[in-house]
Design brief:
The protein has five helices and five strands. By secondary structure, it is α+β, with helices and mostly antiparallel strands. The chain has one domain: 4'-phosphopantetheinyl transferase domain (Ribosomal Protein L22, Chain A), CATH 3.90.470.20. The strands form two sheets. Strands 1-5-4 form a three-stranded antiparallel sheet. The protein has a two-stranded antiparallel ribbon with strand order 2-3. A hairpin with a 3-residue loop joins β4 and β5.
């Protein structure tokens, strides 16, 4: 049974501008160390950072909370299987929220171009 869905689209330029304006402070606030390492492995990291930003927004919308007191940036981690398929690992408040909502599976898809990044998340029971 589907408990919630979320989607987010963001302009890559907006994320690039935030990174350039705030430097590491912005990236470290939004991404976990493994996500930073993944994004920085690309010669142009901005679309990958934007996709993870959009993913975290989409996940927070699937939970119905948004990013805030119940669920923060660092509570959500986006990684990829060897096939390239993205997946989410929840930490701290994210894990608590998943248990509280009776969630079992969290599906995620990402897409990005040079200009936009898109994420869709679906939260369902086991």
């Amino acid at each position: 049974m589907i408990l919630g869905t979320g989607a987010d689209i963001i302009e890559v330029q907006r994320i690039q501008a935030a990174c350039e304006r705030h430097g590491d402070r912005f990236v470290k606030r939004v991404l976990r160390p493994s996500e930073i390492a993944y994004c920085e492995s690309f010669s142009v990291p901005w679309p990958h950072i934007a996709a993870r930003f959009a993913a975290k927004e989409a996940v927070s919308k699937a939970f119905g909370t948004g990013i805030g007191a119940e669920l923060g940036w660092q509570d959500i981690e986006v990684a990829n299987l060897p096939s390239g398929q993205p997946y989410v690992t929840l930490h701290d408040r994210g894990r608590v929220l998943m248990d509280h909502r009776g969630g079992g599976n969290l599906h995620l898809t990402l897409s990005h171009t040079q200009n936009y990044a898109l994420a869709v998340a679906v939260l369902e029971t086991d």
